[in-house]
Amino acid sequence: MHYLTLPFFKEVEQAQSILLAGAGGGFDIFCGLPLYFGLRDQGKQVHLANVSFSPLFSATGRWLSPALMEVTAATQGNSRYFPEMYLAQWFAAQSEQVPIYCFERTGVQPLLTAYQTLIDLLHVDAIILIDGGTDSLMRGDEPGLGTPEEDIASIAAVHQLPLAHKLLLCLGFGIDTFHGVCHAHFLEAVAELARRDAFLGTWSLTKEMPEVQRYREVIEAVLRAMPKHPSIVSTSILAALDGLFGDVHSTGRTAGSTLFINALMTLYWCFRLDPVAQRILYLNDILHTQTIRDLTYAIELFRTTLPATKGWVNLPI
């Protein structure tokens, strides 16, 4: 049955110390938890990191670099919104001590230093970035980029690291329509990456999988701890896993919009990271950035130089 092995799993077969990192912050790292549980069950060391939207400067934890904090179950911080802290606490309730390495929302250069710190500390030989959604594949000339800053900073930083195995996973096809992303352009990007031998396949999560059941348990526990800050991405994926379909709203945050919950939201889309980075039209414009403000300005400036953006394309299905 080896001929049915997805290229993604061949790519990480020899890796022993894997860093799973939420590329876009917030709940992105949670989208990697089914994979985390699965890889760990294979005997691999797997570490968790995430761009944090919580104010780390007011939290307790060990600073490993100017933009990197180790968050544990003992960390104290903003109780209203700190998913990484609550994730570490969930692990502690399972009698596991799993630190979550939190990156500040920053420019590419501090993020690059933070990633190199983790490589040295954890002897990382593979990095897998996780995007909850699909806006990480927007190259810059699409009609809407979603919320690109954190995703693109993560991709640009990891692109510069001297590792053989650097991958990107997207989970939640269709969810970023809420943020203005045209998914025809996502599929166009997948086709381009396939031509460059950078598309490593897709596979579906189902609610029967033990790894997915644990993922659901974590999400529900963290959402109970932060009831005023539900994740649009995570609640949409859980709804799709339950077989819900169409304009189904699991959180009031999406009120007034039209959703399309469907089975495609449960697919992992897998890519080699370097070709993803190389197709970003403004990559060289952001490599020097130090702050998130620098990054936002560079993207906005690039957009003003475009003679036109691509038009919106409705999927003909």
Automatic annotation (TrEMBL):
Q: Which domain of life is it from?
A: Bacteria
Pfam families reported for this sequence: DUF1152
Xref: InterPro entries: DUF1152
What is the protein name stated in its UniProt record? DUF1152 domain-containing protein
